[in-house]
Fold this protein.
Amino acid sequence: MRRRLSEKVSGLLASMSCLLLLAGCTPRSAQAVELQQVPTPIPMALIEVVPLPAAEPPATSPVEAEPAPSMEEEPLRFTFPTPVAEAVSAWRPPLVPVPWAMTPYDHFYFSRPIATDAVNWPSADYRYGDFFPDSDIVHTGVDIAADRGVPVIAAASGKVTWAGEGLYKGGVIEGDPYGLAVAIRHNFSYDQQNIYTIYAHMDRVDVKVGQVVEAGEQLGIVGSTGKTTGPHLHFEVRIESNNFFYTRNPELWLAPPQGWGVLVGKMIDRYGFPLNKIKVKVISDDMDKTWVVRTYGPTSVNKDDFYQENLVLSDLPAGDYWIEFRVRWKDYRHKITIKPGMVNYFTFLERPGTFSDTLPAPGSGSVFEPAVLEPIVNP
Ligand SMILES: [Zn+2]
């Protein structure tokens, strides 16, 4: 899979040092968003959005064909730890049109599942790969703290493959942690694999299995069904299979606001393993503002096929930032620049204690590891 990607991009690497030279494209006609702050648009040829064949076998059951996960395994936590209401007052630029990718590695295919007139960004308290304190239970999506009753909308077009209770346990309704949920199989693919998005904890579902929906179409309303302590939307992106073992970090798939970018880090300890649960401060002197994000926990979330990251922080206005964190009683500090509309990547190696902002060559086995799908068994 990566080999094919590397073949595709190998000819482009020479120009990667100057990404903004990439040729222009035409955004989707449905997008009426004015692009005033966005640098050179994407070359659509680089985006691997391949329409899927229209003919699909009729759904005989709302249950997907993939094997249901064992009920002994409980790798998901749906409880919303601290439902803190975030103010909507902070003005945000409109989103870039989707699909959006300024590099051959990016894949911002989805608009937000909540409209821009409400909280539509991931809660900072509980991101993908985050853990509850003193818990081995990992979070396989992002939580969006919109108010109860706010419309939940399709992040892109596709067909509804699940609508109602029982998503997690494959039809067993009682105690399903997702509550009232919708799954969409999108009518485009990534690297020839199906893409699914999941919308959970809704108070009401407004679509049926088999229904074809367009981006922005209402799927239901924000609620608190399933395992949750407060109303919010749990949103997942799944690649290849509609199963929680196949999730990816939604912050790498949701379109950023215009002029804003995404920070992605790969932080490796002295033994060559990912640094887990490290609290990282991202500090903007210009804005006098600090973001806090943690590296992924030790188990069970999937890294991006290309970046192999263990830290993602989206929605950062373009500009200069300091990254600060502590590993084994030693403090580290590194300056980064967030460029808009794209992933901004860094690596940190505890030994010898160095940073790099350079994207490694695709396919170089010394840097990238294969994505590992490790289900957590939670006793
Ligand atoms: Zn969640």
In short: The chain has two helices and 19 strands.
